[in-house]
Amino acid sequence: MKTFFKSAATKVLAGLLAAGLLVMGVVPALADTAAVSVSAQAGKLVVSGQATVSVRPDIAYIYLGVESTDTTAAGAVSNNTAQMTDLVNALEDLGVANTDLQTYGYYMYPQYDYYSSDTPAVIGYYVSNNLMVTLRDVSQIGDLLTTAVSAGDNIIQNIAFDVSNPSQYYTQALSMAITDAQGKAKAMAGVLGVSIGKPSEVDENGYYYPSYYYYPEPNSGTIVTADNAQVEDAILTGRVQITAYVTATYNY
């Protein structure tokens, strides 16, 4: 058996000599390459970073509407159109640009009497026209709601607060998220006793950017009612939070 291995080794060596490969420096170079390959497979740290920027909103989206009824479909549409025209004119007189007014829902359906007879009978028609108002000065919310109700608005669905330039604040949050990831990586490297440099890879993992909604509730004291046309303007704008997420990879 020993004779066989010696013979095989001799043949391999002879083959290398014949090919001219066994010259000074070639075999050591191959050994060095193997060592580099092993060291290149050193460990890595993968960390996440997160940061949130809290911003005072400077814009509001107010969802208003007018609902009307009549014994005929044409009458209900006519009544609603007149009410909506008054509402739009009042909002424009307040300083709201026409381009900041947008219809987002229009509905009409018959109203039935289910109790007078066995067969439901149409007794009238209902029309609802919903309007989204973009208000670029949130301090005017109270005035706008009072004006809207006085002009015939009888629907308020919700109010959403937002910022007009979210990308500016997202960039801040993104920078802070990267700093957060760097801090985590340094802390982990310190515990492990390894050295790290710049990250080999940084991935942006999206962002979280919700608008803040205010929903009036019946009998809450902040609901707008067409009966008394009273609006309590103590509506809190709160803050809009913009959050960025990143993942960073460090080699050591």
Describe the protein's architecture and organization.
The strands form two sheets. A five-stranded antiparallel β-sheet has the order 3-4-2-5-7. A three-stranded antiparallel β-sheet has the order 1-8-6. Mean pLDDT is 81; it is low at 1-41 and 217-230. A hairpin with a 7-residue loop joins strand 3 and strand 4 (121-135). It has helices at 2-19, 26-40, 73-94, 141-150, 166-192, and strands spanning 44-55, 59-70, 101-113, 121-135, 155-162, 201-208, 212-214, 240-251. The protein has two domains: 42-58 and 163-252, Protein of unknown function (DUF541), domain 1 (Translation Initiation Factor IF3, 2-Layer Sandwich); 59-161, Alpha-Beta Plaits (2-Layer Sandwich). The chain is elongated, with a radius of gyration of 36 Å. 37% of the residues lie in helices and 33% in strands. Helix 3 packs antiparallel against helix 4. The chain contains five helices and eight strands. It is an alpha+beta fold and 252 residues long. It starts with a helix and ends with a strand.
